[in-house]
Amino acid sequence: MAPIIRTEHLRKVYAVGKERVVALNDVDLSIEKGEFCCIVGQSGSGKSTLLNQLAGLEKPTRGKVFIGRHEISAMSETDLARFRQAHLGFIFQSYNLLPTMTAAENVALPLMFKGVDKNTRLALARKELKSMGLLGRANHLPTEMSGGQQQRVGIARAFVSSPKVIFADEPTGNLDSTTSKQVLYRMLELSKNQQVTFVMVTHEPELARCADRIVTILDGKVQSSVVQDEETRRRNREELFAGLDLTIGGKAAKEKGQGGGKTEAGRVS
Length: 269
Ligand SMILES: Nc1ncnc2c1ncn2[C@@H]1O[C@H](COP(=O)(O)OP(=O)(O)O)[C@@H](O)[C@H]1O
Ligand SMILES: [Mg+2]
Known about the structure:
Blueprint (H helix, E strand, L loop, with lengths): L2 E14 L2 E14 L3 E5 L6 H8 L7 E6 L2 E2 L5 H11 E4 L11 H11 L4 H14 L15 H13 L5 E5 L7 H18 L2 E5 L3 H4 L4 E6 L2 E7 L2 H12 L9 H4 L15
Parallel strand pairs: 3-8, 3-9, 6-7, 7-8
Antiparallel strand pairs: 1-2, 1-4, 4-5, 9-10
Helix pairs in contact: 3-4, 3-5, 4-5, 5-6
The site of adenosine-5'-diphosphate (ADP) has 12 residues, from strand 1, strand 2 and helix 1.
């Protein structure tokens, strides 16, 4: 199968005063369609830089980035912005929700850029929130929600426009361990059900162990890119999600209108 994301001799050098920081050094990487890929490595190793290059958020100093058959590293800023809106989704560590908009309005936002009319936008946003167990929070502002709830709104927003690839930089970085697991579970479930390719940076090994592919970065180079066999992955997911209340939001999920009953751990394995 042809990879959906591919880099060739990718290099990124930052200028800091008179110093030059080589953040990525000759990275050749392939990620297959539908894979849930985790990028791991020490702080400062180049994980975020790599993710930003793959997502077309920054231009490489040298080398190429392809998504599907498109060389995004060669696109103009305008074409790239359009490509991102049409095909890519993003989940941020600090959620990046607009504070004056409700959960539903935040989720609906990417559809506005696609020219979808308001009623359809909000209906699709509510559907996405429902699958995140958050229908009861549709009219809440971000400040009225917990970190885990806000991040689930962030995930719903990334998924609403049916992107081919979703990029996430430490999406569970601000969440407690239980909430992190619940959020990861949702991402795995959506990636599996909707065949979305996922690239997630994390420094939590127990989360990365659940991925289809683990890419380890060291000093700006890919140290390894390992596809985990199905059995290992299934065992790791079962271990991680064992005993977890996957109704997400715990008590909140039991409130009326939240939808979604008890989910069996390991279903995404
Ligand atoms: N915008 C920038 N300007 C200058 N140096 C940067 C910039 N972004 C990252 N770096 C440097 O590049 C290296 C890799 O950073 P980063 O990709 O953020 O690492 P990680 O996400 O693995 O912690 C680090 O040495 C960092 O200081
Ligand atoms: Mg980083």
